[in-house]
UniProtKB/TrEMBL annotation:
HAMAP family: Ribosomal_uL4_B (MF_01328_B). It holds the Pfam family Ribosomal_L4. It comes from Thioclava marina. The gene is rplD. Forms part of the polypeptide exit tunnel. One of the primary rRNA binding proteins, this protein initially binds near the 5'-end of the 23S rRNA. It is important during the early stages of 50S assembly. It makes multiple contacts with different domains of the 23S rRNA in the assembled 50S subunit and ribosome. Gene3D superfamilies: 3.40.1370.10. SUPFAM superfamilies: Ribosomal protein L4. This is Large ribosomal subunit protein uL4. One of its GO terms (cellular component) is ribosome.
Length: 206
């Protein structure tokens, strides 16, 4: 697959050959769904917790005598049926993460990249480098290029000035190639890869 390479000022910088094994697959929603579900489950805090009968702060004294009251037999105000009593079988802190094979995760990333390429929402940038960290300059360039919700994936390291300039612009996110993931790619309208980012992703996924 051949794609034009552009500069930040919208000028042309030649073209690039993209691997069909990574960018030319037929996107499958089931694979993308499984990988996104794995990502979101792994990111879930799992800190939900409630107080059980043994944990609530209440007197342990028998609330009234066993027999002769005409009411039900109760031994503790901590019982779940009482107001301010413990919660029965409530949530406890746990990890929501589940396993997903490494090869399947890589396949999911390939399908995410292919889906952007297939929909024409993949842009290859010559490099994401700025001489000075000026948000105004990057915002102007993004507006001229028509970028609204974009994810920029650079090589092994992100240019510091570019990252600082993008930090205050809503809708522009920047990641190094190792941070590329299915959820972030699908979440944004446009995917912008630098030439270094393309090389790093192809080396990672081949």
């Amino acid at each position: 697959m051949k794609l034009d390479v552009i500069k930040l000022d919208a000028g042309k910088a030649g073209s690039i050959d993209l691997s069909d094994e990574i960018f030319g697959l037929e996107p499958r929603a089931d694979i993308l769904h499984r990988v996104v579900r794995w990502q979101r489950a792994k990111a879930q805090a799992g800190t939900h917790s409630v107080l059980t009968k043994s944990e609530v702060s209440y007197s342990t004294k028998k609330i009234y005598r066993q027999k002769g009251t005409g009411g039900a037999r109760h031994g503790s105000r901590k019982a779940p049926i009482f107001r301010k009593g413990g919660v029965y079988k409530g949530p406890t802190p746990r990890s929501h993460a589940h396993d997903l094979p490494k090869k399947f995760r890589a396949l999911g990333l390939k399908h995410a990249l292919s889906s952007k390429a297939a929909s024409g929402k993949l842009v290859v940038l010559d490099d994401a480098v700025m001489a000075e960290a000026k948000t105004k300059l990057l915002a102007k360039a993004a507006k001229e290029l028509g970028w609204k919700k974009v994810l920029v994936i650079d090589g092994a390291e992100v240019n510091e000035n570019f990252a600082k300039a993008a930090r205050n612009i809503e809708g522009i996110d920047v990641l190094p190639s190792m941070g590329a993931n299915v959820y972030d790619i699908l979440k944004r309208d446009t995917l912008v890869l630098t030439k270094a980012g393309v090389e790093a992703l192809e080396a990672r996924l081949k």
